[in-house]
Amino acid sequence: MLADFEEYDRTEVIDGVEYQMSPPNMSHVVIRGNIDRIFASYLKGKRCRAFSEAGLYLENGFLIPDVMIVCNRDKIKADGIHGAPDLVVEILSPSTGKKDRSVKLKTYEKAGVKEYWIVSPKAKSVEVYKLQDGHYELDELYHSLSQEEWDMMDEKDRKKMKLSLKVSLYDDLEISLRDIFEDL
Questions:
Q1: Model confidence over 107-145: pLDDT tens digits?
Q2: Measuring CA to CA, which residue among 57, 9, 53 is closest to residue 33?
Q3: Are 67 and 32 in contact (CB under 8 A)?
Q4: pTM over 0.85
């Protein structure tokens, strides 16, 4: 049976403006699942918790991030997360790209989210923003490369490439880009 997408109702509200969210495509679902598994495995037995598509209540609205990590368990309520998570991941889709890079970036920055990732399934890239003195700075732009792309690079360019990203919340959590984009 096919899903009835007309019943798919996920609305975010930011500064009083409503944003309807379309159902995610399969690339989006696969990437979210990969990130969920990585975070869940790492965080097992630790204070912080990972959430996927949970409601997030901030001072200026209600959002539904793809993935977030929350370390202050007092923010976790029955209806969602109340207050800034420590890390938020948004996975781009054709209908959300502009909002994720503008409205949501500014909203998470203002709320004090320490680290914000924008993941592009099409480019197989991750933009990592870190909060510095109350403002986001692009910390790094990571790309997942095919074997063919890697083979075409000279040694100098290979040394510059970062094939894994370090999560700033932890000293020992480094994630391979191949793991994020596995099975795409």
A1: 999 999 999 999 999 999 999 999 999 999 999 999 888
A2: 53
A3: yes
A4: yes
